[in-house]
Design a protein that fits this description.
The complex is a heterodimer. Chain A is mainly α. Chain A has 11 helices and 3 strands. Chain A is globular and about 60 Å long. In chain A, 59% of the residues are buried. In chain B, β6 and β7 form a beta hairpin. By secondary structure, chain B is mainly α. The chains are: A mainly alpha, B mainly alpha.
């Protein structure tokens, strides 16, 4: 039963990814009073790219073909492993450990980094270098987030953490200073992780300012489709992670009555839409930062997470 | 194991390695045409001996010794009440673990060496010395007394000093005008630095062990076991500091690591795989674990904190200079320091959790809470040691294969090897992903376990002194950055070496040779399979390793890592007294299930593969987009220094950054005296980064030399009256001693 639920949830997650991106682009365009492409445009783009004949650079190896698959799989895996839509009950063994997910994100970055070097193109290497540097900035913070959760909730397993938050109630989550700091830190970090403004401009067409997108330059056809899809999934994952950690009551749970669950299923797109609207508004008032300036938000996120850990330790010590 | 069989196998293994050493070193001396045969005999004997050592390790892993076997008293009746020198052998699980690793790796490296040593000068001597080195290494692990242990350590130092001469001797044979003077200086520095550092380490270890022997009243480790030093904190602290400093030098811990990247890259790449893949850890962690957990068992509270901080710094420094290194062998040597740091983090955590003050403060239930946690940390450390042996020796042997095919190990010259050397490249990539700690390979498992041990150790530390938690936070911060940097380092290294297009014509020319022969290929594939296997069956491996801490810590039961071989799970209690299973706050548990993880990655991967599979039309190959210009691989691909610019640029002096290479200032300025340890490392043309640790060691060393010079000049004044005065003083002292002694 669990396996069927995870499978369903994962497939839904994979399918919903482009929708979030389409929605975000539509909202941003409307906020900036531009003509917007329809919300389902990303699906059309993917379908078009998947039909195209792939063209490989002469200097590329087999890695060029398989790296996008790995990247796609790593960003899709959280949908199958961690709670996105459905929260399994307590005591159900799960494999959505936060440290494992951090490693999956790093694996995706590593595959991207290698793919960028594979063709030997001038911009690909540049993109790889920047991607790997962003990984250095995000990984310690994510580990501190895991540490703080381990202190507060005695586990780093995401479904157990969400269960604990679910049971703690709004007071237990929003009156917990270290959890609040953690939320702030994670929110900052998701901008870095998902490459959104002000860190990276996903709509940029200038090669010199691109991070991960510079790696896409050598790609085309189905491989590019996978990379674009993976990017959409990455964004969807960070949004759902933030939502589910800090508003876990909107997750479908075995402990809810049937009618509530049915309502929550309908509420899921609304929830995503709200989060996307906030992000669209935020992106509309931001300008892109210089590469070196990214250190500031990244270190802020890290500091917030470290303070959250210290607060959690202090709380344990005093009680 | 029956003692007769034991003697037979130990004797046979010793004989194999000794005879192998003799054939390699001496046989070819007399007859030039025996050189080939001597090499092959020595390597065959090394494989035989290694096989026997592996067998010994496997047997004793199953059924460890309970008390030491005394083979023979060697020297008795020493003056001054010195304890007898006797050969005692003792193989418990810790020793068997290292025996197994040394045996297995030495067999693989010997198999590989058949190919690597072909057409090399001095091949017979390298093969012979390899035998002696392996012998000293595995014998060091089984002996049970001070003298033999130190003897083995010293033998390893001497043999390895010979091996670090390798590159220097090759340069001597070349045309002196052709040799780059900097290259020659570096090769000279390699064999001059190693013995200095290593002997400093051996001296400090000797001091620590002799102190212990004096208190224990015997040179046997049996006498030192269960030595209660509780009443003498000063002595225990002294032994701890001496042992940490000495074994830290041998193992490449943070402030005293610079000899690792200076000496090792100049040894032959085959032995390099054994020394840095395994022996550097065997010669430090084996004794460190024994001294810390067996000889000095009540641990002081600050030891763990100190070791943890050292571990963090070690990891960070190692990976940082791995990124700035310009050749593959130096980069991997630097990166070994990083992994030593990760292993040390587990050891430090175990120390922190088993400190006597901590145990006292927990009262009755102490052993039920703290010791499982400490053993969890130790298992994490040992698991990482095992993993590092697999992936680091794999990467070294891949480096050797690349060197064998192209003759080049400089990162900024290689490139595009993946097209013509598929096996080498595949195994190199597997090693790179494993070392970056990414699933589903082995590096990930031990890093996950180390992190979980830190998380589980969490606030328990705060029970004693809340600010001790700072050491946990600091080590987590440094390890987190080091993990991120490792991924960057190996994306850079693998990208530079394997991917893209060859940067030099000689690399392109080497492509005609094709991939490495079967003996090399087998070795590489076996090690790659080990990386995969250790990652896929974490539950089984951790369950096996959990037996080691039961010998080192006063544990009742080994910590359980679950029953499934592919799932690594543990639950440790965090509260004294009985804790119900449902009590969430009372336990800390974590679970790493490989099968669901593989399914979670595999399913979307299959989806992605199906979606991107070529249909109907064939894949087209087109030219690379270079903005309309002709493609020049040496200039248009990103260089390693540019790749990592964001990481190293802050350690470059601002003044140097603005100064153009070959500018006016560089010409007019007199050349600075060449430092003993060069601490401004070239990273690209005209760009250098600082190495503050080398700078510090250089400063301390030159200060010591200055003091010694001043004292020596005064002492050896050259005046005959001064020397007569010395004689007079000595005479008086001898008389006084003679009178007082009666």
């Amino acid at each position: 039963m669990m396996i069927a639920y995870s499978l369903l949830q994962g497939l839904l997650f994979v399918a919903a990814g482009p929708l979030v991106v389409g929605l975000l682009r539509w909202l941003k365009a409307r906020l900036q009073r531009r003509q917007a492409a329809p919300v389902i445009q990303p699906y059309r783009d993917l379908a078009k790219l998947l039909r195209k004949q792939p063209v490989m650079p002469a200097t590329a190896s087999a890695l060029y073909r398989y790296a996008p698959i790995v990247v796609f799989a790593c960003y899709a895996a959280p949908g199958f492993l961690a709670p996105v839509l459905y929260l399994p009950g307590e005591g159900v063994p799960s494999s959505g450990d936060l440290v494992i997910l951090v490693a999956l994100l790093a694996l995706a970055r590593m595959a991207m980094g290698l793919a960028g070097m594979d063709a030997g193109a001038p911009f690909g290497g540049l993109g790889s270098s920047r991607e790997m540097f962003l990984n250095v900035l995000t990984e310690p913070t994510l580990l501190f987030v895991a540490y703080a959760l381990a202190l507060l909730r005695r586990t780093t397993d995401l479904s157990a953490v969400m269960n604990a938050n679910w049971q703690a109630g709004p007071l237990g989550v929003y009156a917990e200073p270290s959890l609040l700091l953690l939320g702030l830190s994670l929110a900052l970090l998701s901008l870095v992780e998902a490459g959104r403004l002000p860190i990276d401009n996903p709509a940029s067409h200038l090669e010199l300012t691109m991070y991960g997108k510079a790696i896409h330059l050598e790609y085309g056809g189905p491989q590019l489709a996978l990379l674009e899809w993976a990017e959409a999934l990455r964004l969807t994952f960070v949004i759902t992670l933030l939502l589910n950690l800090f508003v876990p009551w909107l997750l479908i749970s075995a402990e809810n009555p049937q009618w509530l669950n049915a309502l929550l299923v309908l509420l899921f797109p609304v929830k995503l839409m709200m989060a996307t609207a906030i992000l669209a508004f935020w992106e509309s008032i931001q300008a892109k930062m210089r590469l070196r300036a990214i250190l500031t938000p990244a270190l802020t996120a890290l500091t917030l997470a470290v303070i959250a850990v210290m607060l959690a330790i202090a709380k344990r010590y005093m009680l | 194991m029956a003692s007769f069989e034991f003697y037979l196998i130990v004797g046979l293994a010793v004989a194999c390695h000794l005879f192998g050493g003799a054939t390699g070193v001496f046989l070819a001396r007399f007859m030039r045409r025996w050189r080939e045969m001597g090499t092959h005999m020595a390597l065959t004997l090394a494989m035989l001996g290694g096989g026997l050592v592996t067998y010994l390790g496997a047997r004793f892993w199953q059924d460890p010794m309970t008390e030491a076997l005394t083979v023979a008293p060697l020297i008795t009746g020493l003056p001054g009440g010195f304890p007898d020198i006797r050969i005692e052998l003792f193989v418990d699980r810790l020793a068997a673990f290292f025996l197994l690793l040394i045996g297995l790796l030495s067999v693989l490296v010997a198999l590989y060496s058949y190919v690597w040593l072909r057409n090399k000068r001095e091949k017979n001597r390298i093969a012979g010395m390899y035998n002696l080195f392996v012998l000293a290494a595995w014998f060091m692990v089984v002996v049970n007394d001070l003298y033999l242990f130190l003897g083995c350590l010293e033998c390893m130092t001497l043999v390895f000093t010979f091996l670090t001469l390798y590159r220097h001797n090759l340069l001597l044979l070349e045309d002196p005008d052709q040799v780059d003077p900097e290259e020659r200086a570096a090769a000279e520095r390699a064999f001059k630095t190693y013995p200095v550092f290593s002997h400093a380490g051996v001296i400090l270890v000797t001091a620590a062990l002799v102190l212990l022997a004096i208190v224990a009243g015997g040179a046997s480790f049996d006498a030192m076991r269960g030595l209660a030093l509780e009443g003498q904190p000063g002595l225990a602290n002294a032994v701890f500091l001496l042992a940490l400093a000495g074994l830290g030098i041998k193992g490449g811990f943070a402030p005293v690591h610079p000899w690792v990247p200076i000496s090792h890259p100049y040894s032959p790449t085959t032995t390099h795989a054994l020394t840095l893949g395994l022996i550097i850890k065997a010669s430090s962690f084996y004794m460190l674990l024994r001294i810390l957990f067996e000889f000095l068992s009540p641990v002081a509270w600050w030891w763990g904190a100190l070791v943890l901080l050292l571990a963090g710094v070690t990891a960070l420094v190692g990976v940082f200079y791995a990124i700035t290194s310009r050749d593959l062998k130096t980069a991997l040597s630097n990166h070994t320091v990083e992994n030593v740091g990760i292993i040390l983090a587990g050891v430090g955590l175990a120390l922190l959790l088993s400190s006597s003050e901590y145990l006292d403060s927990l009262g009755q239930g102490a052993s039920r809470i703290a010791l499982p946690l400490a053993s969890l940390a130790l298992v994490a450390a040992l698991y990482h040691l095992l993993n590092h042996t697999a992936f680091k020796s794999l990467l070294y042997l891949c480096t050797g294969a690349i060197e064998n095919r192209t003759g080049i190990v400089d990162l900024d010259k290689l490139g595009g090897l993946v097209h013509r050397f598929p096996w080498t490249s595949l195994t190199f990539l597997i090693g790179a992903v494993a070392i970056a700690g990414l699933p589903p390979l082995n590096g990930f498992v031990s890093e996950w376990l180390t992190l979980q041990a830190v998380f589980a150790g969490q606030d328990l530390v705060a029970v004693v002194r809340p600010w001790l938690a700072v050491s946990l936070i600091a080590v987590l911060l440094m390890l987190g950055i080091a993990f991120g940097l490792t991924a960057l380092a190996f994306a850079k290294i693998a990208g530079e070496v394997l991917l893209g297009a060859p940067r030099r014509p000689e690399v392109k020319a080497a492509e005609k040779q094709g991939d490495v022969p079967w003996r090399m290929r087998t070795t590489l594939l076996l090690l790659a399979a080990a990386c995969l296997g250790l990652g896929l069956f974490p539950g089984w491996v951790a369950g096996q390793l959990a037996a080691i801490p039961t010998d080192l810590l006063p544990l009742d039961n080994a910590i359980s890592f679950g029953s499934s071989p592919t799932t690594l799970e543990f639950v440790v209690p965090l509260k004294p007294g009985e804790v119900e299973a449902s009590d969430q706050a009372g336990t800390y548990g974590a679970r790493l299930a490989v099968l669901p993880l593989l399914a979670g990655i595999g399913l979307p991967a299959a989806l992605g593969w199906a979606a991107s599979r070529r249909r109907r039309r064939r894949r087209r190959v087109g030219p690379l987009w270079t903005g309309g210009a002709d493609y020049r691989p040496e200039a248009m691909q990103i260089s390693g220094s540019a790749f990592s610019y964001m990481v190293w640029s802050w350690l470059e002096k601002q003044k140097e950054r603005n100064q153009k290479p070959g500018g006016k200032r560089a010409e007019t300025e007199a050349p600075a005296p060449r430092p003993w340890l060069p601490w401004r490392l070239p990273i690209s043309e005209g760009r250098r980064v600082r190495e503050p640790f080398r700078q510090g060691i250089e400063a301390v060393a030159s200060w010591l030399v200055a003091i010694a010079e001043r004292f020596g000049n005064w002492f050896q004044g050259g005046d005959i009256r001064q020397y007569l005065g010395y004689l007079f003083v000595i005479f008086i002292v001898v008389l006084l001693v003679a009178v007082l002694w009666r």
